[in-house]
Specification:
5-stranded mixed sheet; 15 helices; alpha+beta; about 375 residues; globular
Length: about 375
C-alpha cells in the first residue's frame, strides 16, 4: 500500500479545494464540488468562493440563494452550511442523528423538552411554516400557545426535528435580515430521500480526500462510518503515521512538488475544520492562533500550501484597511504576493469604501 507524505496530502487537498489555481467554474458548480461551504455566519461563503474562483461576483451566490438552488441549513457537525438544494435533501437524513441526540442532551433545552411528544410539536411547526417563512421567535411563540414550554426551546425542537433552511434576505450580500425558517422540502419542492451514508463519504472524499475514516467522521459529526467505508470500492493509501487513507478509485493525487501559490482564505474556511488531523494544512500550535475558544475562525494566510498567519478587514466610514498578521518571517516574493491579493480582497469586499489600504504587521 502506497504511503503518501504530508506534503502530498497537502497538495491533494489544495487541488480538490480549488486552491492550486483559481478555477473557471460557476458558483453553483463550486458549491457542489466543495461539498458545501461553512456558513454559520452569513458571509464567509462569499469569501470562500472569492478565494477559489476566477472573477467571482457576490451577485452569483446571492442569485443562487434567491432562486433556491442553494440553501443554508444545519448539517454537518450541527453547523449551518451553504449547500446545493440536492445535497441538503440527500445529507440531512444521514445526519439526523446529530439533532436527535442534541434534543436529549442540550444543556439549555433538553429538560424543558423531555416530556413533550417531539413528533407532534414538529408537525405543528411544519403546519405553521406552510404559511411562509417565519422568524424563530415567532415560530416559538406560536407553538407556545399550545405547549407550556419556553418558546426558544420549542423553536430549538423544530430546528432539530425538521430540516429547516434559513431563507433570504439573510446571507444576501449587502443586505441584512433576521433569521427566518422554512421546511427544506417545501422550500425547494422535492422530498427527502432515504439516508445514504456511502454517498456522503464519496462526496467528502471528492472534496477533501485522501482522508482517514476519522477525518470523514470529524467533518460529518457522526460515527460508525468505518463500517460503511469497508464495504465501498475505494482506493487505499497510508499516511506518514501508518493510518489508512481512503479515496475514490477514479481520483489521483498531484505531484507533491506542484507549486502552491500564496492565498488568503476566508473566515470559517472548511480547509481548517474538516479533518481530524489538520496538520496537512496547519500546525496544532497555529490552529490555536486562528480558532478562538468560542469557535470563531479567522481568515488565514496560506504560503506553500500551509497556514502561516491571519488577516482581518477593518472598515470605518469610507476607509477600509486589511491587516495581515504572519506568524513567521516571509520571503519578499511571498510577502508581495500576499499584499497584492490582500489589496484585491479589500477592494472586492469593501467596494463602497473610498480608500483601501493593506497593512502587514511584523511576525508575532
Amino acid at each position: 500500500m502506497e504511503t503518501l507524505t504530508r506534503r502530498a496530502l497537502n497538495r491533494a487537498t489544495l487541488e480538490r479545494q480549488l486552491l492550486l489555481g483559481r478555477a473557471e467554474m460557476s458558483a453553483f458548480d463550486a458549491v457542489e464540488h466543495l461539498a458545501g461551504l461553512q456558513a454559520q455566519a452569513p458571509f464567509p461563503p462569499y469569501f470562500g468562493l472569492w478565494s477559489r474562483l476566477a472573477g467571482f461576483r457576490p451577485s452569483e451566490l446571492a442569485e443562487l440563494l434567491e432562486s433556491r438552488r442553494v440553501v443554508r441549513i444545519a448539517l454537518m457537525r450541527g453547523t449551518v452550511h451553504l449547500v446545493t438544494a440536492a445535497d441538503a435533501l440527500a445529507w440531512r437524513p444521514v445526519l439526523q442523528g446529530i439533532y436527535d441526540r442534541d434534543l436529549k442532551q442540550n444543556t439549555l433545552h433538553a429538560s424543558a423538552l423531555a416530556g413533550l411528544d417531539h413528533e407532534l410539536v414538529a408537525e405543528a411547526a411544519r403546519k405553521l411554516l406552510l404559511g411562509g417563512p417565519m422568524p424563530g421567535t415567532k415560530l416559538g411563540a406560536e407553538l407556545a400557545r399550545t405547549w407550556d414550554v419556553p418558546p426558544s426551546s420549542l423553536t430549538h425542537l423544530a430546528r432539530g426535528r425538521l430540516p429547516l433552511v434559513q431563507t433570504p434576505p439573510r446571507a444576501i450580500w449587502g443586505k441584512a435580515g433576521q433569521t427566518t425558517y422554512a421546511c427544506l422540502d417545501e422550500w425547494v419542492g422535492a422530498p427527502l430521500p432515504p439516508p445514504s451514508p456511502a454517498s456522503l463519504i464519496s462526496r467528502y472524499l471528492r472534496a477533501f480526500g485522501p482522508a482517514t475514516v476519522a477525518d470523514v467522521q470529524t467533518w460529518a459529526g457522526i460515527t460508525r462510518l468505518g463500517e460503511v467505508a469497508s464495504s465501498m470500492d475505494l482506493r487505499r493509501y497510508r499516511d506518514p503515521d501508518g493510518r489508512e487513507l481512503l479515496d475514490l478509485p477514479e481520483l489521483t493525487v498531484p505531484d507533491e512538488d506542484v507549486p502552491a501559490p500564496p492565498r488568503l482564505l476566508g473566515p470559517f474556511d472548511q480547509m481548517i475544520l474538516s479533518y481530524a488531523d489538520r496538520t496537512r494544512i496547519i500546525s496544532d500550535a497555529d490552529r490555536k492562533r486562528v480558532i478562538s475558544q468560542n469557535g470563531l475562525v479567522k481568515g488565514t494566510l496560506l504560503v506553500g500550501g500551509r497556514v502561516c498567519g491571519f488577516w482581518e478587514i477593518k472598515a470605518a466610514k469610507k476607509a477600509a484597511v486589511i491587516e495581515l498578521s504572519p506568524f513567521e518571517k516571509l520571503t519578499k516574493r511571498d510577502t508581495a504576493a500576499l499584499e497584492k491579493s490582500a489589496g484585491e480582497l479589500v477592494q472586492w469586499a469593501e467596494a463602497a469604501a473610498e480608500t483601501h489600504e493593506v497593512r502587514i504587521h511584523p511576525p508575532a
